[in-house]
């Protein structure tokens, strides 16, 4: 049933807001996402791609099997990979490099671009090829001078976000995702609020800007419309066993717990905000209806894309400069890039701030 007349995803049952919503806002609240064509100019796109190329060239110091140091005379950054599969906790949850990237620009390689010795494979071992091995860079691109910051602080972004109902938007995270030809891996089913949790209500908004055309062949986004009405299934939190509860409560990354434990862990959300038996039964039913969380819907009797379609996902192909916005509880994923064409994106994540009576969860990374 159409729920647009009943509530706003971010503002809830605010009657005054519901009466003044734009048609775009109503569509967003109904489906959980919004596709805006030609949101960024060709110059904005070009400048973002060029700045990322410069950052990779100058800042990503990586080892190769052929040399002790990729850039002679400079200390090389340990190669960290980014994963969204069953190896995610080991890759991101036990690594200071990931944890400390919140306010910086750190670089994460594609697992397929790394050999057994932990170096770039021969395909990417030349300096001019290392951009092709990059999975993502983040998570503080919006903090450095240049096109990423200019875009983040632009009036068009602010106006759009406020049109959708955000009152006090703040940006805790930005990232550049490459999805490079042949090596760009899948991103499994997830909800962004898993990683950017707010209380007492989820307020994460993803802004997914296509820097290249995104198609079925090179790994466009697949979304499950209206799934943003479902509960949050799990959270990625700083592990209190590693950091100690005091560090969690004070939002400190100085660990005082058991350092042998992973820094980050997934926990399953529980419906702790209600004692109503009917609500609990409904919540459990909704949870069990999404068995592919952290993986992909699959079937032995059909292709991968057919399995996604059967599970309710739809592909959203984009042109360079198009913007996709989606709610933090919307189920979405992407498949590997098996084509010869890149699929770069710049992604912002924002949440409501304290002035909207929403709080950044203390256990967030």
Distance between the termini: 36 Å
> Rg to the nearest angstrom?
20 Å
Biggest sheet layout: 7 strands, antiparallel
What is the helix/strand order?
Answer: HHEHHHEEHHEEEEEEHHEHHEEEEE
Question: How many beta-strand segments?
Answer: 15
What does this entry look like structurally?
The chain has 365 residues and is an alpha+beta fold. It has helices spanning 15-20, 23-31, 42-59, 88-92, 96-99, 147-152, 155-163, 240-243, 245-249, 277-288, 304-310; strands at residues 33-36, 105-109, 134-139, 169-177, 187-190, 198-199, 205-210, 221-223, 234-238, 264-268, 314-316, 323-327, 332-334, 345-352, 359-360. The protein starts with 14 loop residues before the first helix and ends in a 5-residue tail after the last strand.
Provide a concise account of the structure shown.
With 365 residues, the chain is α+β, with helices and mostly antiparallel strands. It has helices spanning 15-20, 23-31, 42-59, 88-92, 96-99, 147-152, 155-163, 240-243, 245-249, 277-288, 304-310; strands at residues 33-36, 105-109, 134-139, 169-177, 187-190, 198-199, 205-210, 221-223, 234-238, 264-268, 314-316, 323-327, 332-334, 345-352, 359-360. It is globular, with a radius of gyration of 20 Å.
């Amino acid at each position: 049933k159409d729920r647009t007349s009943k509530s706003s995803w971010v503002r809830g049952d605010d009657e005054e807001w519901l009466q003044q919503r734009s048609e775009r806002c109503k569509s967003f609240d109904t489906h959980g996402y919004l596709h805006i064509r030609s949101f960024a100019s060709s110059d904005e796109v070009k400048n973002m791609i060029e700045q990322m190329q410069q950052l990779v060239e100058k800042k990503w110091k990586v080892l190769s099997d052929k040399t002790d140091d990729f850039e002679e005379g400079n200390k090389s950054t340990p190669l960290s990979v980014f994963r969204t599969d069953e190896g995610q906790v080991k890759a991101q949850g036990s690594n200071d490099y990931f944890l400390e990237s919140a306010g910086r620009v750190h670089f994460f390689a594609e697992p397929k671009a790394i050999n057994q010795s932990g170096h770039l494979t021969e395909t990417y071992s030349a300096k001019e090829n290392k951009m092709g091995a990059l999975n993502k860079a983040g998570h503080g691109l919006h903090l450095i001078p240049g096109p990423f910051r200019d875009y983040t602080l632009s009036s068009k972004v602010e106006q759009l976000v406020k049109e959708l109902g955000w009152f006090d938007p703040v940006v805790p995270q930005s990232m550049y995702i490459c999805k490079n030809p042949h090596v760009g891996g899948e991103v499994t089913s997830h909800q962004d609020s898993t990683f950017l949790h707010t209380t007492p209500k989820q307020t994460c908004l993803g802004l997914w800007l296509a820097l290249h055309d995104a198609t079925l062949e090179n790994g466009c986004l697949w979304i499950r419309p209206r799934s943003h009405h479902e509960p949050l299934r799990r959270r990625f939190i700083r592990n209190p066993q590693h950091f100690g509860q005091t560090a969690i409560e004070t939002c400190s990354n100085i660990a005082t717990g058991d350092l042998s434990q992973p820094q980050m862990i997934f926990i399953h959300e529980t419906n702790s905000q209600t004692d109503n038996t009917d609500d609990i039964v409904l919540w459990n039913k909704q949870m069990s209806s999404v068995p592919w969380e952290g993986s992909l819907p699959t079937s032995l009797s059909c292709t991968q894309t057919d399995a996604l379609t059967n599970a309710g996902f739809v592909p959203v192909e984009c042109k360079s400069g198009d913007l996709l916005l989606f709610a933090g509880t919307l189920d979405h994923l992407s498949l590997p890039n098996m084509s010869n064409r890149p699929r770069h994106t710049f992604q912002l994540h924002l949440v409501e701030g304290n002035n909207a009576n929403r709080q950044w969860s203390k256990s967030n990374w």
